[in-house]
Amino acid sequence: MSIDTKTAAHVAKLARIRVDEDDLPALADEFNTILGFIEQLQEVDVEGVEPMTGVTPMRLKRRDDVVTDGNQTDKVLSNAPDAREGFFAVPKVVE
């Protein structure tokens, strides 16, 4: 599969990326390079290889899922421009 400048412009538009006309040939070349790498990966025989989440076997650290309030209300509200009764006070925006 090969990407031309028209397809590169279409991909850029779909990604909502503005690309100058002069830069489209370079972008198409980059896309073609990426597609070449993907084609190389598809040639690898992975039959019988189990998927893994990482390259080194590690057990994830776990902690108890305990709900707390953090006991830091004063510290959290110290930077608030306006705090009342332990909460952030904001201007009313809906009538």
TrEMBL record:
Family statement: Belongs to the GatC family.
InterPro entries tied to this protein: Asp/Glu-ADT_sf_sub_c, GatC
PANTHER family the UniProt entry points to: GLUTAMYL-TRNA(GLN) AMIDOTRANSFERASE SUBUNIT C, MITOCHONDRIAL
One term of GO molecular function: glutaminyl-tRNA synthase (glutamine-hydrolyzing) activity
A single GO BP: translation
Gene that encodes it: gatC
EC category: ligase
Pfam families listed in its UniProt record: GatC
NCBIfam families reported for this sequence: gatC (TIGR00135)
Species this protein is from: Tranquillimonas rosea
EC numbers for this chain: 6.3.5.-
UniProtKB keywords: ATP-binding, Ligase, Nucleotide-binding, Protein biosynthesis, Transferase
Catalytic activity: L-glutamyl-tRNA(Gln) + L-glutamine + ATP + H2O = L-glutaminyl-tRNA(Gln) + L-glutamate + ADP + phosphate + H(+); L-aspartyl-tRNA(Asn) + L-glutamine + ATP + H2O = L-asparaginyl-tRNA(Asn) + L-glutamate + ADP + phosphate + 2 H(+)
The protein's name in its UniProt record: Aspartyl/glutamyl-tRNA(Asn/Gln) amidotransferase subunit C
Function noted in UniProt: Allows the formation of correctly charged Asn-tRNA(Asn) or Gln-tRNA(Gln) through the transamidation of misacylated Asp-tRNA(Asn) or Glu-tRNA(Gln) in organisms which lack either or both of asparaginyl-tRNA or glutaminyl-tRNA synthetases. The reaction takes place in the presence of glutamine and ATP through an activated phospho-Asp-tRNA(Asn) or phospho-Glu-tRNA(Gln).
Subunit (UniProt): Heterotrimer of A, B and C subunits.
